[in-house]
Amino acid sequence: MVNRLAGAVSPYLRSHADNPVDWYEWGAEPFAAAAQRNVPVLVSIGYSTCHWCHVMARESFSDPVLAAYLNENFVAIKVDREEHPDVDSSYLAAAGAFTGQLGWPLNVFVTPEGKAFFAGTYWPPAPLQGHPAFRQVLDAVAAAWADRRDEVESNAAAVANALAAQGEPAAGMLPSEEDWVRIIGELSGHEDPEFGGFGGAPKFPVTPVLLFLLDRAATGGPLSADAAALAERTLAAMAASELRDPVEGGFFRYSTMRNWTDPHYERMLYDNAMLLDAYARISDGLSIAEGIAGFLEKVLRVDGGVFASAQDSESIIDGKRVEGAYYRMDAAARAEHAPPALDAKVLTGWNGLAIGALAEAGFRHGRKRWVALAREAAEYLLEHHFRLDGSLVRASIGDIVSTAKATLEDYGMFAAGLLRLALATGEVGYAARARELVDASLSAGRGAGGAVFRVPGGADPVLQSQGLALAVDPSEGAYPSGLSAMAGAAHTLYLLTGDAGYLRASATAMQLFAPLAVRRPISFGASLGVMTRLAQPAAQLVIVADEAGSPLASVAHRWERAGSVTATVTSEQGRAFASAGFELFEGRVVQGGRPTAYLCRDFVCRLPLTDPEELAASLRDDGGASGP
After folding, report:
1. What's the predicted TM-score (pTM) here?
2. Which single residue of 129, 298, 588, 600 could bond 540 by disulfide (Cβ 3.0 to 4.6 Å)?
3. Which CATH architecture has domain 539-626?
4. What sign has the CA pseudo-torsion 353, 359, 363, 369?
5. Helix, coil or strand: residue 280
6. CATH of domain 11-166
7. Concatenated DSSP letters for 342-404?
8. How far apart are CA 73 and CA 56, in angstroms?
9. Same fold, 11-166 and 539-626
10. Cβ-contact 503, 429 below 8 angstroms
11. How do residues 260-296 score in pLDDT, each as one tens digit?
């Protein structure tokens, strides 16, 4: 049997390399093999920090008898959902036709043409509490394939046709003032009044919603106080709970209990990047933000200055693999044990989230080290994940580059992170690269429907050939969708360039999600954040200072207003931005040799200010919030 997973980019796939299952990686080859053998395909999807994925691997995929049966009757594909999020999204959509208990591991049985006809998640090795054993599932699927092929293929075609017919979401209007009142009211109604957070068990951070609430708080409107209070109560509850690791500072993925106890101990890059963003924006959050930044630097940072995708929940303690045991130890005890393994896979999009959070939090709080960490990660990605043709690499590990296609989330999250880094450093090169990514996505979207933004070079070729590629993936419960990330980056570009095309593209993209977001705000926090910023008058603040430590810059760093940008540049940097087509910086120079502030509305600027107290008064008059 050929070991096809030993050289995989994904540590999750490598962990299955020694299984007796004849695994294939995702691609056209296994479907061709299934067609030749006239057998169905098992597409098994998971990720390296997924607890039940590891359990099923130990119980079933390591069983030589079961593996022999699987190899004889199926072609088996192992997929890392973090490496191939588009594959995961497509099969999640299909699996919804067969089970309401979606999650991972996700095991989908498909025809050699890729069409799903049965799906489920974890199956035990023996029947348990009404759940069939995995071998029983395999027997039933193999029998259906052999004896009721017409029925199987008819059902598979019906599911595929239903998914294809969904197409893009129906566009609507961006939220009205009445909608915003209902949205904040509904989120408040989801709040757990006793333990904080949203809903019952299991309880997730739902960080995109918290960031949206902080955006609403920064509008200065009638909902600001309610939004701020809800976000701050939730963040305070999480910081004081078992969800936060008090030793290394990072946050775990979720708690299995309503009171934030008994966490699932995996620690994800995207969670911690966005939580750094949130805690850096609230008055009592700096110490928590410092802990998260320390976790990113000391635990998740890998060679080259980029960040690993996640850290595992399980570790080896006294020769046994135990979930959470390491994290329940104090610092001294941890020093006696090897830490849980990292999923050292470098994802462009998730690193974009970290770059943006570190850059802006460092800019806001004067933490030069955080900005330096963002810069190092960005430089690595620009050198190793930004191809000469302008396309992006989705994932890599060490010197091995994944064949997975970069997705819209990679383009959008990286572009947004580069823009935030450009504003924090005053270096136009980052903004120019971000503009290239947004422009490439806009070019790919011309004539392709209402989504405006598309993946340069097209979607995953296997999904495309099978007609299974989703036109638009709206899922963004845990982190921004590709479309919302790209819309946010385009809006920032509008604020910097004055090009109304970016504004139109951002608004058009968000109109696709608006009806969904108004109905289910808990699932569309990132989109609602972009919609909030789109609804505000454009505001821009530029500080031109040729000396470090300007008091004007200190005032600017504390100002927060939804729909705004703040930049501190030297005279030379301002000229570079202007020369590169970023209109906001045109004519922004120091006055009388003193650091100078330019406060603008829709690119119309007030008289330049050189006195910090006058700037502070002007910012108070302009509304928004005063940051920590």
Report:
1. 0.95
2. 600
3. 3-Layer(aba) Sandwich (3.40)
4. positive
5. coil
6. 3.40.30.10
7. EE--EEHHHHHHHHHHHHHHHHHHT-HHHHHHHHHHHHHHHHHTB-TTS-BB-EEETTEE--S
8. 19
9. yes
10. no
11. 999 999 999 999 999 999 999 999 999 999 999 999 9
